Amino acid sequence: MNHLLRSSAPISEAGWELLDREARERLVPALAARRLVDFSGPLGWEHSATNLGRTSRLAAAPCEGVGGLQRRVLPLVEARADFELPRGELRDADRGADDTDLESLDQAAHQIAVAENVAVFHGWKGAITGISEASPHEPVKLGKVAERYPAHVAVAVERLLSSGIAGPYGLALGREQYRLVVETAEHGGYPLLEHLRKIIEGPIVWAPGVSGAVVLSLRGGDFIFESGQDHSIGYDSHDSEVVRLYIEQSFSFHVATPEAAVALKP
């Protein structure tokens, strides 16, 4: 990871351990997509493209009697979130302070996790086609009445079954939808969360960045996330007051079976 230039930063080994640990703690809860799609990697910063196993015929050839095909690949995208930390806070951490202010790191970690969720579920224009935009199914209108969520999710599951898409299924819920589900109990006091789990027979994940919800099959092979460099902290520059850092990753995402998911619109 030499390109991250960490050895050039005025940060001690203990300081880097603190920053890496803090970033992991903030990233893991928000990385919803990775809990629901096939994950491959990390394959390294040098890995640049995902093989699609397809070709395009070339219109011309170097000489007569020869035809040509060009391999098609999906280039990885690089995502980066910049942040700054006061050098005084880093020095206090080296002295043993247990209340180091790492709010800017926390915000950057959350932002890059949200960006990954959005790219996977809704797409990244010009680079990645997301699950919901690739799905051929008519989106289910979710609405704002949480007690109706089981009926809407059941409709999505039935559409998947009718398309020959086996379960179990997963459910990614946007922030507002997840909050409504967690705080709602149905008639008789039965938790809505447990009712939804029985319908999909799989995990329900908090997915910041997702608009509404997405039901998708977890049978495998339908949605492929390929990681080049996983989330890593790099050094940009510094002055007498602050150190400028960033969190960076490279990845591609490919929808192999568009009909294996149904979007639920808010």
In short:
It is built from 7 helices and 12 strands. The chain has 266 residues and is α/β, with parallel strands linked by helices.
Give your account of this protein's structure.
By secondary structure, the protein is α/β, with parallel strands linked by helices. The chain is built from 7 helices and 12 strands. The strands form 3 sheets. Strands 1, 4, 9, 10 and 11 form a 5-stranded mixed β-sheet that branches. A 5-stranded mixed β-sheet has the order 5-12-8-6-7. Strands 2-3 form a two-stranded antiparallel sheet. A hairpin with a 3-residue loop joins strand 10 and strand 11. Helix 1 (about 15-30) runs parallel beside helix 3 and helix 5 runs parallel beside helix 7 (about 190-200). The radius of gyration is 22 Å and the shape is flat.
Task: Please supply descriptive tags for the structure shown above.
266 residues, alpha/beta, 5-stranded mixed beta sheet, 7 helices, 31% helix, flat
Proportion of β residues?
25-35%
Shape: flat
Q: Mean pLDDT score, rounded? A: 93
The counted number of beta strands is 12
Kindly state the percentage of residues in helix: 25-40%
Low-confidence spans: none
Number of helices: 7
**Helix/strand-derived class?**
alpha/beta
Backbone CA Rg: 22 Å
What is the element layout, followed by pairings?
Elements: H1 13-30, E1 38-40, E2 49-57, E3 69-75, E4 77-86, H2 87-95, H3 103-122, H4 131-134, E5 140-141, H5 149-162, E6 169-173, H6 175-183, H7 192-200, E7 204-206, E8 213-217, E9 223-227, E10 232-238, E11 242-255, E12 261-265
Parallel strand pairs: 1-9, 5-12, 6-7
Antiparallel strand pairs: 2-3, 4-11, 6-8, 8-12, 9-11, 10-11
Helix pairs in contact: 1-3, 5-7
